[in-house]
Structure prediction request, 681 residues.
Amino acid sequence: MTSNDPLLQLYRLKHLTLKNRVMSTSHEPAYSEDGMPKERYRLYHAEKAKGGMALTMTAGSAIVSRDSPAAFGNLHAYDDAIVPWLRELVDDCHEHDCKVMIQITHLGRRTNWNKADWLPVLSASPVREAAHRTFPKTIEDWDIERIVADYASAAQRMQAAGLDGIEFEAYGHLMDGFWSQATNHRDDDYGGSLDNRLRFTWRVIDAVRAAVGPDFVVGIRMVADEDFDKGLSKEEGIEIARRLASSGKFDFLNIIRGHIDTDAALTGVIPLHGMPSSPHLDFAGEVRAATKFPVFHAARISDVATARHAIAAGKLDMVGMTRAHIAEPHIVKKVMEGREHQIRPCVGATYCLDRIYEGGGALCIHNAATGREATIPHVISRTDGPLRSVAVVGAGAAGLEAARVLAERGHKVIVLEASSQAGGQVRLAAQNPRRRELIGIVDWRLAELERLGVEIRYDIWAGVDDVLALDPDAVVIATGGLPQSPPLDAGDDVVTSSWDIIAGSVKPAENVLLYDDNGGHQGMTAAELIGKAGSKLELLTPERFFAPEIGGMNHVPYMEAFHRSGVKITINTRLKSVRREGNQLVATLSSDYAKGWHEERRVDQVVVEHGTLPLDELYLELKPLSKNGGAIDYERLIHGGDIFPAKNPDGRFLLLRIGDAVQARNIHAAIYDGIRFGLRI
Ligand SMILES: Cc1cc2nc3c(=O)[nH]c(=O)nc-3n(C[C@H](O)[C@H](O)[C@H](O)COP(=O)(O)O)c2cc1C
Ligand code: SF4
Prediction:
């Protein structure tokens, strides 16, 4: 039966038939190995293909030249060795009728000279790129010749690999560096008039067309409005779109609004949670109306309803749901099967993107299978081993995920939770109104547990007897942790924990010192809330810069809040002790660098963030009663086999401990524990 869902309509692009309107736009997950898309890369895209999307734009910024060294694991489009790897990936996706294209580029100034071959990094003019701290050299005539030829040979390689098409990247990179007066100060044939500023683009497309012929699909992901006073204006941007569209040389436009030369600007192009949804959709629709040309676009269109609207209202031809597919690669399949409500939501945390710079590979905050397709399945199948009864203690991220996976495998699961609500630290983090969407991590799991018939018993501070009363075959301890104080010479009893501020159980005082030596979201969230409450706040950290565990994108809204509420930030400084004097507190500060240096602060409140200590009492009590003494065989966990060593022949159940009940970590680690151990019972 044909569907009348706008998202599920066919789309004809040149000779290609795209089976629906949903695509993943180009994004480098930093899964490449030696610049090649090997098994991990292939399985990642194949999963999306299985999940029903019509088009996956592979790579993010695959590099055409050696003097465009990879900034975040970019594929080497300049290397012939890439062809067989891509062919394998294409074949796997084609098996599911998913078309595959690739984005190619010269990064221009958006990379660093001190990488790969240490070649100079270049741009239209020597204007510094703040995000990569690069001072580019001015591109010369011989550079232009060489790079134009590189584009052409890269395009040929992509065609040889069987790809369905390519797109050029033209925002924040070399190509659009010529377009924008902010980055092009030239007075030769490549600067000044719009005709001149487009000259490089025409040279590239002409060389590429000569190399791949007129039938190969070639599009461009282009900025059509840089959205700042010195940048490319909307009028010029739309004029460029018109010229490219009417040239007959391109097959689609993939529209971007904004600029990306600072982390703050990048969040305008790729907004996080707490920022507007689909902020540039209407603009992309304007470009489509002005050019009457195929238009693709992505920017926080994270739910199916908005995507459907984008197509139904004629704003886009293909809708990009990129992070949405990192969180849930099977969106289209679930829509087609009437299971839209089962789609795992992208909660906009942008842990994925921050990790390509900070952690070396994109991981979703709450889908641990993404990027681990070789070892962790996206669809959990029923076990063919014995069905067991499992008690999960704790309904935070780790416990909920373990319960979900165990129930999917057919086990009988009961969850015991101490508080009256599930969610643990995720619920706490979602107390920050700006990060409220995080609660989707909890709500999606609760809905799945209901569907799977898992019982959750609330308000039970489970002891050994409560667990034994269930007579379980296995016990999963996911009891989380509680905040601990940093090591102080004195004053543990007068400081306030960041959790109390976030939960709202302690109000921020007038004059506050916040000491964060954890470096993650907990301290920053407390600081944001204190600042927004109108308090005078000094944020103190012993690190070289504050919140080192938070990536560049997530840094942006915190810093915005700190500027707006006048938070003072002091780095490289420790909190040594706190004492009460009258109705105030006196904090003594010290330095790792200058022995004997001290300063004092007189404030109304000292808030501290120093991670958590595991709540492990129940685990320790259950250990001697268990078959495995709580032990896990890590070699087998990683390479396969029974992970529970037999330690105690009289033991009554298998015992394992996951998430922050083991050690203070983050949401992804808790979810990963939940699934990887849940799969092994
Ligand atoms: C990990 C990651 C890497 C990205 N790398 C690129 C890239 O190299 N080139 C590009 O054009 N866009 C890149 N993007 C941007 C995405 O294509 C997309 O525009 C962005 O995620 C917004 O769409 P969404 O809200 O649907 O995720 C990247 C995004 C992510 C999450
Ligand atoms: S990390 Fe956050 S933004 Fe990225 S895919 Fe997962 S839920 Fe979406």
The first helix runs from residue 39 to 50. The longest strand covers residues 55-63. The chain has a mean pLDDT of 97. The chain is about 30% helix and 20% strand.
